[in-house]
Amino acid sequence: MPVNSRKVVFLFFSTLLIGSISGAIVGFFLELDVYIGGGFVNMLMGLLWLFGISAAFSLVSQMGFFAYLTLHRFGLGLFKTTKLWNRIQMVVIGFVVFDLIYLRYIAFATEGETILHYSVMPILLLIYGIIIAYFKAKGTNQGAFIPALFFIVVVTTIEWVPALTVNDPKWLWMYFAPLIAANTWQLLILHRLTNQPNKEARA
Over the stretch 178-193, which tens digit does the pLDDT of each residue have? Predict the structure, then answer.
């Protein structure tokens, strides 16, 4: 069933809200002393700023989501079979995880840091992606697992590039929090909005 305009509006604003709140919460606790040390007005203005910038990041997430939906349809049409397209996506996932580890290591590693320091975050992202892809496949069908994993790992990483190139821990997490929250929400809510039946219902 196609998504009507009301569902599109719901998806847009719910994603915007979830991304904004998650980013504001993470940003607030990252610099807790700064926001609570200057009184109530300072804290309020800080929260508004965090909410606004996180909203901008969630908009990036939404653009990435719809871009991937288009790419996915294009990939299915180009490679003819879902099996081949899924294999290509798995290869890209592997390259992205490797690049997140190795390229950031050679670009930013300082004396005393090993490649293990740059492996934790990509591996955690991969594990998180597997968990979310499992729930997506469980809610729809097994064929959704690899596309969901690709979206969480690859698309989130592409959206995260501006913060990755800066390599500032504060901005890494402030950028990442609204992106991953918004991407997860969009991925898990889409089949509910389109009333796509799961495998049990089809059976």
Answer: 999 999 999 999 988 8
